[in-house]
């Protein structure tokens, strides 16, 4: 397989997993979230990634999340299931289940905590990527696993050459390193990275790159038309949309993907709650944002960015289509 075997591109939310106040999995909210993404006309969705709090779920819960998401999306856009775990065996078992649900692909980071060597990393991805016939996305997430694949010479190229690998999600905090990834492997695999800013627009138009997989998707009303404009090579319109997106995301997320006001996932779910979106609650070890000053700051950002009205318009347009 290679990049031409999938049509993955554009704007994808990395879906949060909604939990209830007592920490229970809220499958109704999860299905509603998938329908919200369909209304916003996203290009795909990642389920059980970092934003999905896979680390606080049991394997049975992760399987339920995958089943509910695939069923709710019902083929309207690609669904990629995150199968990150501490061992290749566990990741492979989750990948087999994802294939059985009808998912369109699977994704994994290197094993968290372990700090695998280059050879160990390649072997891990070789094992997990061939556990099924599904297209596979390699996820570089240094913030979560303390290993940056882009710092190991030649490693991305080796991973791009694995039989089932069709894409890389490069979430390094080093933007120039991400551009190196684009230059090195985008002729062979799709590259999702940090492109939702003016520098990213220039890279997409001149260098390459395929899309963003963005925590939660609250910026979808701005990011979806941005990528439509990029596909049409309409730089002027793309700049207008990306400026709107940055007025929201640039005040919430740091370049290293940390949150400006709190941990990224509690911050995201607080914003989703302000927008009336079905993000649900976080699960321990994460804690909800309850500080009134922090909530006021988030409320001010939502108001100043215009995202509430844009979201309502996008949902209305999506349902009318």
Structure description:
- InterPro entries: Aldolase_TIM (IPR013785), DapA-like (IPR002220).
- Its EC number is 4.1.3.3, 4.2.1.41, 4.3.3.7.
- The protein has 321 residues and is of the alpha/beta class.
- It has one domain (3-320): TIM Barrel.
- It is built from 13 helices and eight strands.
- The strands form two sheets. It has a six-stranded parallel beta sheet, with helices on one face. The chain has a two-stranded parallel sheet with strand order 1-8.
- α10 (235-249) packs antiparallel against α12 (292-305).
- The longest helix has 15 residues, at 59-73.
- It is globular and about 50 Å long.
- The two termini are 34 Å apart.
- The model has no long low-confidence stretch (mean pLDDT 97).
Radius of gyration: 18 Å
What oligomeric state do the depicted chains represent?
single chain
Residues in β-strands, percent: 5-15%
C-alpha termini separation: 34 Å
**What's the CATH class label?**
Alpha Beta
Q: What is the H/E string? A: EHEHEHEHEHHEHEHEHHHHH
Put simply, the count of helices is: 13
- Strand arrangement, largest sheet? 2-3-4-5-6-7
Q: Specify the structural class.
A: alpha/beta
Which word captures the global form? globular
Indicate the CATH topology.
TIM Barrel
Question: What is the CATH homologous superfamily assignment?
Answer: Aldolase class I
CATH architecture: Alpha-Beta Barrel
Count all strands and give the number: 8
- Write down the domain tally: 1
Uncertain segments of ≥5 residues (pLDDT<50)?
Answer: none
Mean pLDDT: 97
Describe the largest sheet: 6 strands, parallel
Helix coverage percent of residues?
40-55%
């Amino acid at each position: 397989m290679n990049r031409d075997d999938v049509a993955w591109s554009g704007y994808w939310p990395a879906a949060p997993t909604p939990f209830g106040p007592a920490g229970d999995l809220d499958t109704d909210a999860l299905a509603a979230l998938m329908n919200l993404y369909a209304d916003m006309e996203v290009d795909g969705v990642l389920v059980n990634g970092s934003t999905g709090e896979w680390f606080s779920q049991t394997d049975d819960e992760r399987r339920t999340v995958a089943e509910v998401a695939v069923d709710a999306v019902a083929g309207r856009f690609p669904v990629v299931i995150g199968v990150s775990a501490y061992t290749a065996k566990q990741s492979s078992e989750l990948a087999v289940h994802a294939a059985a649900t009808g998912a369109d692909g699977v994704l994994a980071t290197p094993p968290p905590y372990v700090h695998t060597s280059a050879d160990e990393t390649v072997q891990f991805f070789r094992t997990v990527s061939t556990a099924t016939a599904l297209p596979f996305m390699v996820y570089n997430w240094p913030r979560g696993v303390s290993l940056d694949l882009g710092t190991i010479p030649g490693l991305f190229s080796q991973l791009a050459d694995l039989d089932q690998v069709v894409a890389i999600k490069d979430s390094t905090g080093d933007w120039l390193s991400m551009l190196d990834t684009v230059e090195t492997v985008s002729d062979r695999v799709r590259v999702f990275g940090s492109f939702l800013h003016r520098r990213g627009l220039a890279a997409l138009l001149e260098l390459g790159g395929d899309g963003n997989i963005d925590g939660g998707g609250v910026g979808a009303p701005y990011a979806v038309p941005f990528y439509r404009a990029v596909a049409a090579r309409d730089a002027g319109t793309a700049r207008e949309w990306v400026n709107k997106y940055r007025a929201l995301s640039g005040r919430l997320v740091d370049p290293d993907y940390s949150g400006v006001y709190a941990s990224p996932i509690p911050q995201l779910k607080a914003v989703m709650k302000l927008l009336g979106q079905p993000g649900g609650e976080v699960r321990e070890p994460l804690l909800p944002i309850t500080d009134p000053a922090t909530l006021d700051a988030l409320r001010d950002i939502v108001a100043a960015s215009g995202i509430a009205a844009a979201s309502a318009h996008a949902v209305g347009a999506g349902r009318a289509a």
